[in-house]
Amino acid sequence: MKLSLNKLKLKQEIDRTEVLNWGIFFFLLLGLFYETLHDGEWFSFIFMVLVIAGYALFLRRLLQSLYYSFWTFFGVLGIYSLFKLCQQPLLSMNFVAFLAASVLIGIQCYSLWTPIFYPIVSWWEYDFRYRDDLKVQVTYNDEKVEGRLTDLRRGAGCVASFRDYKLGEYLELEPFDEVASMKFRAEIMSKRKYSVGRPFNYGVRFVLEEDGVESLFKNFVKFWRSERKLKQKKKFKNEQA
Predict the structure, then answer these.
(1) Cβ atoms 137, 173 nearer than 8 A
(2) pLDDT tens profile 150-196
(3) Which terminal residue of the chain has fewer beta carbons within 10 Å of its beta carbon, N or C?
(4) Residue 46's closest CA among 26, 31, 32?
(5) Could you give the CA distance from residue 164 to residue 196 in angstroms, rounded to a whole number?
(6) What is the mean pLDDT of residues 61-80?
(7) Which of helix, strand or coil describes residue 157?
């Protein structure tokens, strides 16, 4: 997989995830330290420091490459943090430390759960009639091509197209079907290419500053969600038939 990020435009988000990542492990180690002060098992504490430090570096590498396996290992970390939290006396120092780590894990999940970093593509659905995507017309420099909007969350989306665009460029997206009159401008923030023969996946951020565009975009999001539900119902009915 080839991955490119608009690091200049995403600097604030990237810096935030970096700070959150190290903050999580700081509070985990702090909680283990307070726990060790109580039970005196320093050998176990030193061992856990080495394990957690290695785990932190491993997660950081996964996050830098935006591998989807990051979520599996990050989920394990979240379960561990909650498990340790439930073992602590209420409002003790180690309880507060593990609580802070768990809260930061939740904030980190929210920060990364966007199509710019991790677009959702329903690759498991082979029947295009039921895929969670929407056919759109992509316009760039007066050239119009067909693409697919495969994800739409938090003012961002993922556009699949065989055209090779550059980071930072602006695309005009026009959905087909009932919402063909809607047009949205979006800036390319990330770019993924999985293999030869497959389209580029562009993580885009919608430009919503103009008057009336934000309310129009909200209606489009509602349409997107209703289309997903409609496809799921059709698939369920056909499977039952």
Answers:
(1) yes
(2) 899 999 999 999 999 999 999 999 887 655 567 899 999 999 988 77
(3) C
(4) 32
(5) 13
(6) 92
(7) strand
* Residues 75, 79: Cα–Cα separation, whole Å: 6
184 DSSP β-pair partners:
173
Rounded Cα gap, residues 70 and 60, in angstroms: 9
Tokens of 150: 């495969």
End-to-end CA, the chain = 39
* Tokens matching residue 185: 């401008």
Q: Give me the torsion for CA of 64, 70, 76, 81, rounded to 10°.
A: 30
Q: Please, is 196 exposed, middle or buried when counting C-beta atoms within 10 Å of its C-beta (0-12, 13-18, 19+)?
A: exposed
Give the model's confidence band at 214: pLDDT under 50 very low, under 70 low, under 90 confident, else very high: confident
- Rounded to 10 degrees, the C-alpha dihedral 62/66/67/72 comes to 70
Q: What pLDDT was estimated at residue 237?
A: 65
Is residue 7 within a helix (H) or strand (E), and if so which, with residue range? none
